[in-house]
Amino acid sequence: KECFSVCCPLQAQKRLSSLESRRGFELKILKALGRELMVQTQNVIYHLGQEWQKLIVWKLPPSKESSSLEAVLLSELHLHTVPPQEEDTAVPSIAAVLQALAVLGELHFKLKGFGQLLLQYILKPLISFPSLEPVTEEQPDVFILRFKFQELALDKSSPMEVFDKIRLVFEVLHKHLLNVPVEQPGEGRKDGTVTLAELLGELLWEELSDCLIQNCLVNSIPTDSSKLEQYKEVIESTAEFEKALKKMQFLKEDTTALLKYACNVNSHFANKKCRDVIMAARRLMTSEIHNTVKITPDSSVTPPELADPGTGDHPKIHSPCSLLPSETVNLGGERRLHQFTLCLPPCRISSSVQQLVELAYHTLREASSSSDLRCVQLFNCVRNVFQLFYEVVPTYHKENLQKLPQLAAIHHNNCMYIAQHLLTLGHQFRERSPSVLCNEAATFVDLVPGFRKLGVECFLAQMRVQKGEILERLSSARNFSNMDDGENYHAANKAIKQVLHQLKRLGMVWQDVLPVTVYCKAMGTLLNTALAEIVTRIAGLEDISAEDAERLYSLCRIVLEEAPRVFTPLLEEAENKRYQEEVPVYVRKWMTFKKLMIILQANLQEIVDQWADGKGTLAEEFSAAEVKSLIRALFQNTERRAAALAKIK
Questions:
Q1: Cα(116)–Cα(251) distance, rounded to whole angstroms?
Q2: Of 267, 251, 258, nearest to 159 (Cα)?
Q3: Which residue intervals define the domain Centromere/kinetochore protein zw10 C-terminal in the entry (predicted)?
């Protein structure tokens, strides 16, 4: 009797639990009552679910296409503020349905499902698609929320526009659905009453605020410090947006996630600036190396002229001519520096590297006029850019740097160009930077040795490859022996011409790329490798007939005439003559090679005269053992040869 006097399943459950706790009661009847209670409870929940579905109706696009703009435009939300009347049917009010769901503990699940659909089909699309505009339509028994498409010039909406759209959605939801109080015992509130807006806010706000930050506020962070003042408008709009949601009870009074993020714009600006700089730098590092620009002392990137500390002047970039009007710079006293001191000699570098250095200057210039926090972040960002170059470029372009001598030369120049700027980069900006950097080691000089080593090692690796190819070609010359044999002579002649062709090709590839001094040293080293190998092979022969000597001399003559022509560091042919005449300066074995040619054509007396008791020019290039070996190979064993050998000591 007590059980059937309950007014709702919840009270019935309490009465039943009370009876089960007493001793002496028939358990079978209690179990039957419990089963009946469960059936009736589920029946009530089912009917309440039906009422909920009538109250909130979604018209959604097919699930496979739900993320596209076209599909989102098909989404609609229908709120039946007064459910459709049917004949002879009593319709419960919205508050009654919601209260019943709350009592049965089902309201949380219903709101959670509604909130997820609201996020997926209404709120997130409004944030992601700037061209979406919410449209409301109110009819006697239904309220409709849908979208319309509006063509925009910009790809992204401002936070103010997004906030206005989101606020409109919540205002109409608050008016037609969320402003309904329900009793929620145990929620920690004074009277146990809470509005639907509060419950929905607890379920949605964390995900919604993250979406607003990542897809709206992050994009609004300026990339230029000059626009930071304009960001106050975004901060004010964010504060108004949170205030409006709190007024509708969607947010708690102590919730300020969006406003905190917006107010921390200085830190976000520095982080975004650093991220953009790193991304731009990485794009430059992974671009093609062979796109080059010519660098000369009067055309290289010149440091921007910085404003005096404490002034509001904007930095300007001047040409070297305006910064250095005369050919010398007065340092005080009698010491003077040339205007091109610490400038890289004329060469070619990758245009991407020039842009990378310009990016570093621009970032440091912005750091010099920033707050302490931003300044330190931007300064460290520039250091990270150069350290990233050190790691990325040799790895990303590894195969091309190994195979293509021109790219190896350009990479060498790139590293030297960066190292040259790193010498003074920190010093130029340190005095204009906040004290936090002035008092510390704000420098890039520690990176210079690493960049120089990086460039040198890459170029030396290419030099070793070229040396290996030269020696491989000369190995097919059959040791320059038995030149009276036609096949041997042809093989030696072919090897000599292949080496000269290789050197000429390298000379053209490196022409106008390497600095002249580096070019001449590199070509001189490779030519010296070839000459040293030829001299060693010929000097090691045990027998050289007169015909062999004549043919060896003719081969050496080809080298003597053609080798200087591989020195073409400049595009203008007339200007290369000077460097072709200076071959002995760059090729250490050049004079040794010429003396070998003299020996091949000389008689015994001429060789002895050239030796001059170890004081002649021949003694400067060959040891006594080498000269004796050549004499034994060239001349028959006679008393004259013995006398000559006796004088070589």
A1: 17
A2: 258
A3: 342-472
pLDDT tens per residue across span 233-283? 888 998 999 999 999 988 888 878 888 888 888 788 888 889 999 999 999
The amino acid present at 521, given as its one-letter code, is K
Q: Rounded to two decimals, what is the model's pTM?
A: 0.74
Q: How confident is the model at residue 328 (pLDDT cuts 50, 70, 90)?
A: very low
Task: Output the six-digit token pair for 392.
Answer: 């990325």
Q: Has residue 173 got a pLDDT over 80?
A: yes
Helix (H) or strand (E) holding 328: strand 328-330
- 237-259 as b/e: b if 16+ CB within 10 A: bbeebbebbbebbbbeeebbbbb
**CA–CA gap between residue 289 and residue 276 (Å, rounded):** 22
Q: Is 210 helix (H, G, I), strand (E, B) or coil?
A: helix
DSSP state of 307: P
Name the CA dihedral angle for 238, 243, 244, 248, rounded to a multiple of 10 degrees.
Answer: 140
- Which of 489, 506, 626 minimizes the C-alpha distance to 556? 489
Q: In the numeric block, which tokens belong to residue 270?
A: 């520095």
Q: Phi, psi at residue 348, to the nearest 5°?
A: -115, 135
Distance CA 275, CA 368 (A): 18
Judge whether 414 and 352 are in contact, CB under 8 Å. Answer: no
Mean pLDDT for 384-405 is 95
Residue 416, φ and ψ in degrees, nearest 5? -65, -35
Task: List the beta strands (DSSP E) in 102-223.
Answer: 132-138, 143-149, 181-183, 193-195
Closest CA to 425 of 386, 369, 455: 386
User: How many Å apart are CA 357 and CA 343, to the nearest integer?
Assistant: 14
HSE-CB for 48 with a 13 A CA cutoff: 22
Q: At what angle do helices 372-396 and 405-430 cross, to 10 degrees?
A: 170
State the pairing for strand pair 76-79/56-59: antiparallel
Q: What is the pLDDT of residue 89?
A: 52
Q: How far apart are CA 145 and CA 136, in angstroms?
A: 5
Checking if the pLDDT of 399 tops 90, the result is yes
Element (H, E) at 59: strand 56-59
Half-sphere exposure of 291 (CA within 13 A, CB side): 10
- Bridge partners, residue 350, by sequence: 292
Residue position matching structure tokens 């001189």: 524
**Contact (Cβ atoms closer than 8 angstroms) between residue 54 and residue 84:** yes
pLDDT in tens, 73-86: 888 888 886 555 55
